[in-house]
Design a protein that fits this description.
Structural class: alpha/beta
Mean pLDDT: 89
Low-confidence stretches: none
CATH class of one domain: Alpha Beta
CATH superfamily of one domain: P-loop containing nucleotide triphosphate hydrolases
Strand order of the largest sheet: 2-3-1-4-5
Number of helices: 8
Helix content: 40-55%
Number of strands: 5
Shape: globular
Largest sheet: 5 strands, parallel
Oligomer: single chain
Distance between the termini: 71 Å
Radius of gyration: 19 Å
C-alpha cells in the first residue's frame, strides 16, 4: 500500500536510471525522466518550472532530478516523499560516464563534457561529495532514502519494500546493459579521430 507522496531518484547518470524508470512503470507509477529544458533551467538556478512539472508525476529519474541542490527543494516542496540514490562501482561508473559524455562518446550537444580527461578527477570528486551530502542529509530519516545498486543486480527485493508495494511477477528490468557497446563505439570514434589527425598531418601536398 502506497504511503508516500512522490519518489525521486537523485543520484547520477549511468547508474541504472533507465532500468529504474522502467521499474517505476511496471509498478504503475507515472514517471518523468530526462528533460533537457528543465535540466538547463535548474543548472541556472531556476527551479520554478521543474517544481510545476513535478506536480504531475509520481516518480522521477535522471536529470534534472540529479541537480545537486534540487533534492533539498523537493523534500520541502513535497513532504512525505521518498528518495533513491543509485550506486555503482566507481571504476565501472567513470568508464561508462566517459564513454557516453566525452567528446568521443555517444552524447551530443549540451550533454557533452569537453576536455573530459582534464575534468575526470573533478567529476569523480563531485559525485563522491554529492552522494556523501545526500546520505548525510537523510541520516536521521533512513526510511526516506534508499541506496541501491541496480548495476550489481539489486532490484525488486530492495525497491518494493522501500515503497511498500507488492513484488511484481515480471522480472526486474535491466536496460542499457551496453558497457561493451559504449566502449566499442567510443574506441571506434577515437580511432577515427586519430586516423583523421594523422592523415591531415601526413597526407601528400595537394591531396
Amino acid at each position: 500500500m502506497r504511503h508516500w507522496n512522490k519518489v525521486f531518484e537523485v543520484g547520477s547518470a549511468k547508474t541504472g536510471t533507465s532500468s529504474l524508470g522502467k521499474a517505476f512503470a511496471i509498478l504503475g507509477l507515472k514517471c518523468k525522466g530526462w528533460d533537457k529544458k528543465l535540466h538547463l533551467q535548474c543548472a541556472e538556478g531556476d527551479f520554478r518550472e521543474t517544481l510545476e512539472v513535478a506536480e504531475q508525476f509520481d516518480a522521477f529519474r535522471d536529470a534534472p532530478w540529479h541537480n545537486h541542490r534540487l533534492y533539498r527543494i523537493l523534500d520541502k516542496k513535497f513532504p512525505h516523499s521518498k528518495f533513491i540514490l543509485l550506486e555503482r562501482n566507481m571504476r565501472d561508473w567513470i568508464r561508462s560516464h566517459e564513454n557516453y559524455f566525452s567528446a568521443e562518446g555517444l552524447a551530443k550537444g549540451d550533454s557533452l563534457i569537453h576536455n573530459y580527461q582534464d575534468k575526470k578527477h573533478e567529476i569523480i570528486e563531485g559525485r563522491i561529495k554529492k552522494y556523501e551530502e545526500i546520505k548525510e542529509y537523510f541520516k536521521d530519516r533512513p526510511n526516506d532514502l534508499l541506496v541501491m545498486n541496480i548495476c550489481a543486480g539489486e532490484g525488486w527485493e530492495k525497491l518494493c519494500p522501500f515503497l511498500g508495494l507488492p513484488l511484481p511477477r515480471e522480472k526486474f528490468p535491466h536496460l542499457n546493459r551496453t558497457r561493451k557497446r559504449e566502449i566499442l563505439h567510443a574506441k571506434i570514434a577515437r580511432s577515427l579521430k586519430s586516423f583523421k589527425n594523422y592523415f591531415l598531418t601526413h597526407a601528400p601536398s595537394g591531396f
